[in-house]
Amino acid sequence: MSATHHLSPSPSTVHWGFFDAALDPVLEIASGDTLVLESVSGGPEVLPGPGYHVPPELLDIHREVPRPLPGHLLTGPVRVSGARAGQVLQVDILEVGLRQDWGYNYIKPLMGALAGEFPETVQMTIRLHAGSGEEEGEAELPWGTRLPLRPFFGVMGCAPPPAWGMISSIQPRAHGGNMDNKELIAGTTLYLPVFVDGALFSAGDGHGCQGDGEVCVTAVETALRGRFRLTVRDDIRCDLPWAETPESLITMAFDEDLDAAAREALRQMIGQITARTNLGPAQAYQLCSLAADLRVTQIVNGNKGIHVVLPRTALAGPT
């Protein structure tokens, strides 16, 4: 019978700014178990003024956790027993919710899609209103605009290949990481390549909402609580992350060149189509032109991202 495990952020359960296959796991679970994982976000410079709830462990982390590379506060890694390099980790994203009543967003010089055009740091605290029942909740911007919340973890990933050593969490790569894909909300299933035994899954970079592109570098950055089911799959293979929802298939790719990312994400979708249907590659390519949407995931993380979204209805055969 599967079990449920809880992992809260603390100085002993987070790593700041990096992924590394040599990092020791902070928790081990069995394949098929449920993981309730909590995250925190941001350094001391983003803390809000009076009147907001700041998770007390965030202050402890600021004091005690080293930050060897620029990047995100990540909770984990979690070892999944039985996972082996070459397999796939299936991450069922069951629930995602807020842990605090504020988020932040900033512009910094030399960063973002318009790097150099905004010479000063501009930062804002954003009040978050949690929903109840079927209500989604809202983010209230300082000038009064309210945006619907659609929370997701910007970073979800396994450990990278050991040969890569310690890498920044900023650039998304084959292991996942900082994908910043706003489609990866509750109800979505993510598939990640496994590069080391145990998979070593980490997550963080909570986003209350984000536009495709994440053009100024930050979304509504906040602390989240996620409920995941982690399952080792030995019956499928993948060399890049991909996802599925009840309505769609989603393939992803990352590259410094956005065109190269688009081409690879498209190749990945053609592979998904040919594996699921009797269509050949040429027909799958044509189907993508007619039914798939290529979306800019983000253009600000060094390795830019494209995700291709194909409705499941496009895979249906003749009746």
In short:
With 319 residues, the protein is mainly beta.
Layout of helices and strands:
Blueprint (H helix, E strand, L loop, with lengths): L3 E4 L6 E3 L1 E2 L7 E4 L3 E5 L17 H9 L8 E9 L6 E11 L3 E6 L14 E9 L6 E4 L5 E3 L3 E6 L9 E2 L7 E3 L10 E5 L7 E7 L13 E2 L1 E10 L8 E3 L3 E8 L2 H19 L4 H11 L1 E6 L5 E8 L8
Parallel strand pairs: 1-5, 4-6
Antiparallel strand pairs: 2-6, 3-13, 5-18, 6-16, 7-15, 7-18, 8-9, 9-10, 10-11, 12-14, 12-16, 15-19, 16-17, 19-20, 20-22, 21-22
Helix pairs in contact: 2-3
Q: How would you describe this structure to a colleague?
A:
- The protein is mainly β and 319 residues long.
- It folds into two domains: 4-233, Acetamidase/Formamidase-like domains (Jelly Rolls); 247-315, Acetamidase/Formamidase-like domains (Endonuclease I-creI, Roll), CATH 3.10.28.
- The chain is built from three helices and 22 strands.
- It has helices at 56-64, 258-276, 281-291, and strands at residues 4-7, 14-16, 18-19, 27-30, 34-38, 73-81, 88-98, 102-107, 122-130, 137-140, 146-148, 152-157, 167-168, 176-178, 189-193, 201-207, 221-222, 224-233, 242-244, 248-255, 293-298, 304-311.
- The strands form four sheets. The protein has a nine-stranded mixed beta sheet with strand order 1-5-18-7-15-19-20-22-21. Strands 2, 4, 6, 12, 14, 16 and 17 form a seven-stranded mixed beta sheet that branches.
- A hairpin with a 5-residue loop joins β21 and β22.
- α2 (258-276) packs across α3.
